């Protein structure tokens, strides 16, 4: 009896034990290796990053994106109620190191970077075709640079992450601005190599070689490398791939001819910017700042086409109206424009002016002014023309990914402009605080930015 | 106790019955006799003892002198029962039957402990196992098993995190072993079948509860026979990789009587919060705000500061705690059961319903339904045994999605009315966020748990027995939360196109199969027993979260098909398989020396191929020194045992698939293709977490076991820490799973004391006391300074410590909080956070008393804890928002000595900064120790001499009625967390048995 049972049990044991605990992956998961052996799934890993950028973090058009946040932090947006809104502290310039919005923005941006690094590492080892590899790698390198570019703008010294190795990344240090620019350029050059023969996406939903050039030009602007700016922007303008829309109402539609790169919305949805800025009842939580609204020239078509004012007997409030749709529509109408030709003209204008070619600069400025129904600026001193440029950028690029704030920061004009309109403003606030949690978890990121 | 009755103690009623058959079986027959006698205990005659003829209505009670007389047929069966004593059954043979009843609790010998895979006499156990019996679980109104455990067993720490029905309890057995805060859950086993710990809830849908809802919450405590808590290595090693955090064995009620009986238990009760937070009244509040502006040199009040800028009525006052969390919670409970059978087969069945509302404004309820059946069968030759129990529990609730408690802390006392005159929500021209918007955001949940367990056993030979435990358990959850557009301020101009619904459906299924062989052999004074068995456990779970947004009308909101956009929030599937072989070898010499060896080898699908299997084992030993000749006849020491154990147990409580690098679909479409996201940073090499446990204990029974006490000392060390090592965001994720070569030590002393204080006549008074002193220490942590934990832990300190700034006081000149600049660099940085503080209890325990006199019973229990908690300084910036009244002791002018800094409207950045430092300093901690009368019950049992089987017990209970503490801010248990404090409750009920 005893033997029989022991035999039975040991049979069961030997037969079953080792294999019993082998389990299959659930149907909705794939291992990392499999993902990059197929161009479809590898591409799905990449589109995931675009979705993150479209709807979750950094350049997203929703309230967590830098368009809204830095608009409020700078001089574009006014909050009428700050309590209970995460953006309130941005408007009040009271962003603390333990602020949740900052932490989420940081974490999610680096999460996207991780996903890109995993793609780069996976695709490099993969056996898919060279053509497919070029496209995936080019887009991944570009997007990695694009995210780092904004993080640098927000936080100044930051780590530049180029691997998935968490042991390395958890102890990483910050790069100095010069080193960061090098890293950006490095990635962008590689992106340019990979993308040079990749055709533009029909709906410009993928970054192309021209997108790389725009970001290269922006980087060159930071370095005051005017020649490079002029070369890169001229290449884009002269390519004739893009043209300024003559009707301002068409600029942010998904078929806009001046869009160089845009993030696509899900079918039937629209860019999130519409819902973020548009309000239909007053008083709203936030509206366009008076200083911005009042700075438009009276006949500026951008004031009539790109802003909208709601009033009652006593009050009136204005919102940005670049994006017209705050609800889903049958077919998507607007995607989130990341890069567009108007900015390219203005970058070239700035480079011309700074390198002493003010008239050439004025021509580019006037391209933009003509489209806005304004008279041409006449030639003037370099100082005045530069002032024209500053105003033009403010009026053309408002409410788009914090252009205004980053411009003022680049020109070292934050104190001059913001101390008039923002009572809590301090010079040190040009950089946001690094998330406190990051400093705790990785002391190599010390010191905290000044002022926090 | 008289010597000659001694041997009878050891005999079960069945054997007693047999004995009488043999001794008196030849008695001659008569038609009807009058049986008389005296019933007494070891000291005196017992009045009011029920004496009745079995299975009839024929019965009586003993008089003041313990005498009875009953007309009965010879050969009939007569039963003697009295509360606090063991019931005796006798076959009538003569006309006189004198009975000596044995006290129930003092018979240590008879208490059998369920150790999971085997049973052991309490006297002979080598491990550390605490037992809580039905009596101590039933008389609680909370309808929650974990709540019933608080203060009942040494080493078991239960903290109630919210007073919400079905809300969160945090339980830890002998402290935190794992660095992972969610890796310290004990293993729960109900009737031999483990409860799945798979998380199928979506916590975000019910933010009012700080914890995931444990399936344990919906098991009806009235169906529980006993709960055993296994603590040391000897008891837990046989649970191997799941035993490190202790094992909680729950045994449901089984039938064990002949004949048929019914019971009906019904109670109803009311509850209110134990304590309000002392918040400012309008006058005080306005004074504070004005002073804040004045201090900041501001003359104009901000447009957003409606409370003082003239927008709101200065004379208005609302006690928001009364308004929002001041309702009276009500509960109703109805329990019906029947049990019956014969010697070979018996059954039990019960059905209960429990309905409970909340103290929140609005109409929220939780409704629990529980059905339980059990069947027990043994063959005539007693060789075959079957034991089956099936329970079905359902909980439905529409608890609020938001806990209003936190809201009440911050609302201005002169904030507007909640409702307009027409009954709509008052948004006061967008000047505030109406807190009742949360009521629009309706939460609904239904939770089902089917739990079944079966045991079949066959006695193969005298020495061999084969058992098979099998179980099947299925748990379902169906949750939804709607956010209709009416949730938002109407001035946003939203319509039902903005309305949304989030749903979560989850299912978890598990089965368990455990064949087992038991063997034992006795010769001379030697007793050897062994068992071995296998475990096959399979768990699978899935979860689907959906959001629908945009409806043509809010009336369609529960119809997801009507949504304009539908997105999948979460689609999760997982599988867990677990496999083990376990064994036990027990040797007993003359009931004096006992050695117990247990071990387990197990494998879990949660680990990669190289690390799938691991071994655990323990050795335990006991010496019952009162069995030695030199102590055998000692008149005051009735029982004495020394025991000790050493061994290992582990933890695989880390979630499934964590060792794999996987991608899963996001469901988000971009450019017509659905995205794939990387799931985690992966590490294919992590393995088990091991806890080495050492324990020594002394157990004593004094004065005829009227005093039983035990003192246990333990030291557990957990190493190979399986942690999600927190990582900076730059890694792309917040953590990675890995084994960290760190060691955590939990040591402590546990004292229990059970006494029979008075047992005289009809007065019976017992007391139980337990005290746990626990110490948690991080022993080793390689390269702590350079690790991601550098700012969280310190060697030699508990894991729960907080590193804080040291608060120096309010500077009499500047009026600002000041903190010690430890490194003297002129700045306050994380380097200056060198003050360590442990917010967990240093010691805790419970005291239970039970007194019965005639038909009256009084039971009460206390719970106490020595701990620190956050005080009033932790709340909002003084001057800037609604605050506790204690902050009025503030600095006003240079030279003032105050406990709170100067008020500010919020624009004094230095003051704001100082307050931020304050919240991270030791200045926000105060003593929050407390002693609480957790529970008191007074009951009267109505007995009718003509109907001895009918018992009607009428009881009144009060819960949390008295709390002694120096902590003034709030309830010392939930403190200022913003979760609902525990409720004080009053219950009235009747329990009828017939």
UniProtKB/TrEMBL annotation, chain A:
Q: Where in the cell is it found?
A: Cell outer membrane
Q: Which SUPFAM superfamilies match?
A: TPR-like
Domain RagB/SusD per the UniProt entry, residue ranges: 316-436
One Pfam family, please name it.
Answer: SusD-like_3
Checking InterPro entries in the record gives: SusD-like_N, SusD_RagB_dom, TPR-like_helical_dom_sf
Which key words are in the record? Answer: Cell outer membrane, Membrane, Signal
According to the lineage, what is the superkingdom? Bacteria
This entry carries the following GO cellular component terms, namely: cell outer membrane
Occurrences of domain SusD-like N-terminal (ranges):
93-219
- Note whether Signal occurs among the keywords: yes
Q: Would you identify the family this protein belongs to, as annotated?
A: Belongs to the SusD family.
Q: What is this protein called?
A: RagB/SusD family nutrient uptake outer membrane protein
Q: Write down the species.
A: Gelidibacter maritimus
Automatic annotation (TrEMBL), chain B:
Specify the protein's topology with respect to the membrane: Multi-pass membrane protein
Lineage, please? Bacteria, Pseudomonadati, Bacteroidota, Flavobacteriia, Flavobacteriales
TonB-dependent receptor-like beta-barrel domain: which residues? 404-957
Name the SUPFAM superfamilies on file: Carboxypeptidase regulatory domain-like (SSF49464), Porins (SSF56935)
- Species of origin reads Gelidibacter maritimus
Q: Which Pfam families match?
A: CarbopepD_reg_2, Plug, TonB_dep_Rec_b-barrel
| InterPro entries in alphabetical order | Beta-barrel_TonB (IPR000531), Beta-barrel_TonB_sf (IPR036942), CarboxyPept-like_regulatory (IPR008969), Plug_dom (IPR012910), Plug_dom_sf (IPR037066), TonB-dep_OMP_SusC/RagA (IPR023996), TonB-dep_OMP_SusC/RagA_CS (IPR023997), TonB-dep_rcpt-like (IPR039426)
Q: Where in the cell is it found?
A: Cell outer membrane
Residues in domain TonB-dependent receptor plug? 123-247
Q: Which UniProt keywords apply?
A: Cell outer membrane, Membrane, TonB box, Transmembrane, Transmembrane beta strand, Transport
Family (UniProt): Belongs to the TonB-dependent receptor family.
Name of this chain's protein: SusC/RagA family TonB-linked outer membrane protein
One GO CC term, this protein: cell outer membrane
């Amino acid at each position: 009896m005893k033997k029989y049972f022991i035999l039975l049990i040991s049979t069961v044991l030997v037969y079953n034990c080792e294999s019993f605990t082998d389990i299959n992956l659930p149907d909705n998961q794939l291992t990392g290796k499999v993902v990059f052996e197929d161009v479809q799934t590898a591409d799905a890993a990449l589109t995931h990053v675009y979705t993150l950028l479209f709807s979750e973090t950094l350049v997203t058009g929703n309230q967590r994106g830098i368009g809204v946040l830095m608009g409020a932090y700078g001089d574009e947006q006014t909050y009428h109620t700050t309590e209970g809104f995460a953006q309130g502290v941005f408007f009040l310039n009271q962003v603390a190191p333990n602020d949740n919005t900052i932490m989420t923005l940081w974490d999610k941006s680096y999460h996207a970077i991780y996903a890109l690094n995993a793609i780069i590492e996976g695709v490099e080892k993969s056996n898919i075709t060279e053509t497919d590899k070029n496209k995936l790698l080019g887009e991944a390198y570009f997007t990695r640079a694009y995210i780092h570019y904004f993080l640098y703008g927000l936080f100044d010294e930051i780590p530049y992450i180029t691997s998935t190795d968490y042991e390395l990344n958890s102890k990483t240090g910050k790069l100095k601005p010069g080193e960061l620019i090098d890293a950006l350029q490095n990635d962008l050059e590689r992106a340019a190599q990979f993308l040079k023969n990749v055709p533009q996406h029909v709906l410009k939903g993928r970054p192309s070689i021209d997108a790389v050039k725009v970001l290269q030009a922006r980087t060159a602007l930071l370095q005051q490398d005017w020649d490079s700016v002029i070369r890169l922007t001229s290449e884009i303008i002269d390519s004739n791939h893009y043209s300024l829309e003559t009707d301002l109402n068409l600029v942010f539609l998904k078929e806009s001819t001046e869009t160089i790169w845009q993030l696509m919305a899900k079918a039937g949805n629209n860019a999130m910017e519409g819902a973020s800025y548009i309000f239909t009842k007053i008083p709203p939580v936030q509206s366009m700042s008076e200083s911005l609204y009042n700075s438009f020239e009276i006949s500026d078509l951008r004031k009539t086409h790109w802003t909208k004012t709601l009033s009652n007997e006593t009050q009136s409030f204005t919102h940005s109206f670049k994006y017209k749709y705050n609800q889903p529509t049958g077919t998507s109408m607007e995607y989130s424009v990341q890069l567009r030709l108007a900015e390219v003209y203005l970058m070239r204008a700035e480079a011309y002016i700074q390198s002493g070619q003010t008239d050439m600069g004025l021509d580019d400025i006037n391209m933009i002014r003509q489209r806005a129904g304004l008279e041409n600026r006449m030639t003037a001193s370099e100082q005045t023309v530069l002032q024209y440029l500053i105003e033009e950028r403010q009026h053309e690029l408002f409410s788009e990914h914090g252009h205004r704030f980053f411009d003022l920061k680049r020109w070292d004009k934050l104190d001059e402009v913001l101390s008039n309109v923002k009572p809590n403003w301090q010079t040190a606030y040009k950089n946001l605080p690094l998330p406190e949690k990051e400093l705790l978890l990785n002391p190599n990121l010390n010191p905290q930015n000044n002022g926090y | 106790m008289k010597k000659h009755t001694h041997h009878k103690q050891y005999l079960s009623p069945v054997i007693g019955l047999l004995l009488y058959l043999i001794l008196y079986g030849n008695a001659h027959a008569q038609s009807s006799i009058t049986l008389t006698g005296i019933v007494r205990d070891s000291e005196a005659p017992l009045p009011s003892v029920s004496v009745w003829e079995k299975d009839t209505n024929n019965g009586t009670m003993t008089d003041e002198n313990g005498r009875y007389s009953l007309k009965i047929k010879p050969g009939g069966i007569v039963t003697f029962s009295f509360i606090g004593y063991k019931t005796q059954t006798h076959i009538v043979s003569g006309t006189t039957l004198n009975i000596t009843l044995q006290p129930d609790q003092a018979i240590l010998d008879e208490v059998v402990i369920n150790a999971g895979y085997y049973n052991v006499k309490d006297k002979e156990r080598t491990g550390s196992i605490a037992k809580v019996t039905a009596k101590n679980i039933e008389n609680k109104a909370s309808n929650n098993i974990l709540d019933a455990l608080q203060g009942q067993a040494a080493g078991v720490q239960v903290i109630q995190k919210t007073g919400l029905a079905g809300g969160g309890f945090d339980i830890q057995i002998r402290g935190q072993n794992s660095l992972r805060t969610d890796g310290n859950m004990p293993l729960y086993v109900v009737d031999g079948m483990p409860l799945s710990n798979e998380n199928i809830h979506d916590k975000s849908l019910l933010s009012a509860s700080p914890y995931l809802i444990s399936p344990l919450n919906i098991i009806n405590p009235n169906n529980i026979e006993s709960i055993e808590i296994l603590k040391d290595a000897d008891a837990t090693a046989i649970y191997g990789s799941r035993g490190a955090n202790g094992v909680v064995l729950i045994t449901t009620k089984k039938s064990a009587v002949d004949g048929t009986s019914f019971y009906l238990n019904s109670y109803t009760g009311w509850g209110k919060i134990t304590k309000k937070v002392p918040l400012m009244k309008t006058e005080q509040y306005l004074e504070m705000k004005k002073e804040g502006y004045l201090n900041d040199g501001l003359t104009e009040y901000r447009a957003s500061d409606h409370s003082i800028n003239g927008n709101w009525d200065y004379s208005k006052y609302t006690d928001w705690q009364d308004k929002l969390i001041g309702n009276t919670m009500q509960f109703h409970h109805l329990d019906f059961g029947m049990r019956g059978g014969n010697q070979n087969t018996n059954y039990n069945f019960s059905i209960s319903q429990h309905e409970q509302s909340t103290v929140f404004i609005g109409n929220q309820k939780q409704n629990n339904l529980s059905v339980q059946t059990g069947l027990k069968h043994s063959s005539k030759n007693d060789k075959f045994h079957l034991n089956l129990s099936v329970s079905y529990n359902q909980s439905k609730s529409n608890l609020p999605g938001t806990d209003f408690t936190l809201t009440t802390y911050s609302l201005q006392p002169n904030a507007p009315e909640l409702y307009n005159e027409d009954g709509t929500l008052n948004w006061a021209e967008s000047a505030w966020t109406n807190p009742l918007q949360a009521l629009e955001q309706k939460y609904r949940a239904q939770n089902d748990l089917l739990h079944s367990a079966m045991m079949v056993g066959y006695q193969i030979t005298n020495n061999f027995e084969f058992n098979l435990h099998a179980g099947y358990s299925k748990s379902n959850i169906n949750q939804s939360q709607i956010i209709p557009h009416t949730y938002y301020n109407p001035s946003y101009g939203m319509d039902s196109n903005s309305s949304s619904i989030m749903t979560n459906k989850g299912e978890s299924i598990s089965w368990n199969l455990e064949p087992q062989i038991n063997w034992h052999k006795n010769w001379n004074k030697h007793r050897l027993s062994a068992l071995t068995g296998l475990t096959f456990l399979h768990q699978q779970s899935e979860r689907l979260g959906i959001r629908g947004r945009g409806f043509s009308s809010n009336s369609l909101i529960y119809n997801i098909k009507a949504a304009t956009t539908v997105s999948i929030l979460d689609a999760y599937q997982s599988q867990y398989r677990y496999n083990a072989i376990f064994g036990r070898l027990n040797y007993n010499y003359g009931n004096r020396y006992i050695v117990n060896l247990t071990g387990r080898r197990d494998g879990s699908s949660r680990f990669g191929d190289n690390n799938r299997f691991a071994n655990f084992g323990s050795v335990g030993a006991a010496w019952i020194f009162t069995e030695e000749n030199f102590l055998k006849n000692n008149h005051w020491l009735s029982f004495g045992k020394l025991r000790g154990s050493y061994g290992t147990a582990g933890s695989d409580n880390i979630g499934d698939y964590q060792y794999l690098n996987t991608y899963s679909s996001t469901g988000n479409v971009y450019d017509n293709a659905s995205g794939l996201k990387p799931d985690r940073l992966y590490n294919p090499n992590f393995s088990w977490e091991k806890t080495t446990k050492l324990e020594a204990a002394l157990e004593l029974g004094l004065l005829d076991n009227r005093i039983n006490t035990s003192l246990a000392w333990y030291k557990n060390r957990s190493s190979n820490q399986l942690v999600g090592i927190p990582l900076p965001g730059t890694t792309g994720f917040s953590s990675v799973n890995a084994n960290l070569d760190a060691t955590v030590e939990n040591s402590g002393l546990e004292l229990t004391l059970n006494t029979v204080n008075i047992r005289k006549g009809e007065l019976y008074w017992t007391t139980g006391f337990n005290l746990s002193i626990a110490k948690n220490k991080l022993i080793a942590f390689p390269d702590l300074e350079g690790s991601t934990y550098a700012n969280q832990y310190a060697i030699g300190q508990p894991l729960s410590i907080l590193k804080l700034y040291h608060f120096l006081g309010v500077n009499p000149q500047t009026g600002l909080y000041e903190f010690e600049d430890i490194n003297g660099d002129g700045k306050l940085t994380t380097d200056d956070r060198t003050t360590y503080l442990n917010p967990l209890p240093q010691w805790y325990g419970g005291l239970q008393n039970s007194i019965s006199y005639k038909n009256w019973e009084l039971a009460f229990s206390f719970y106490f804890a020595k701990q620190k908690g956050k005080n009033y300084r932790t709340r909002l910036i003084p001057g800037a928002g609604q605050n506790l009244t204690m902050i009025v002791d503030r600095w006003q002018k240079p030279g003032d000595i105050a406990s709170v800094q100067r008020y500010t409207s919020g624009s004094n950045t230095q003051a704001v900064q100082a307050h931020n430092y304050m919240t991270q300093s030791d200045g926000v901690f105060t003593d929050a120790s407390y002693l609480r009368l957790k529970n008191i019950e007074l009951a009267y049992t109505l007995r009718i001499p003509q109907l001895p089987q009918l018992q009607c017990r009428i009881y009144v209970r009060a819960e949390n009625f008295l709390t002694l503490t120096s902590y003034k801010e709030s309830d010392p248990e939930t403190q200022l967390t913003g979760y609902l404090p525990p409720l004080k409750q009053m219950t009235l009920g009747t329990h009828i048995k017939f």
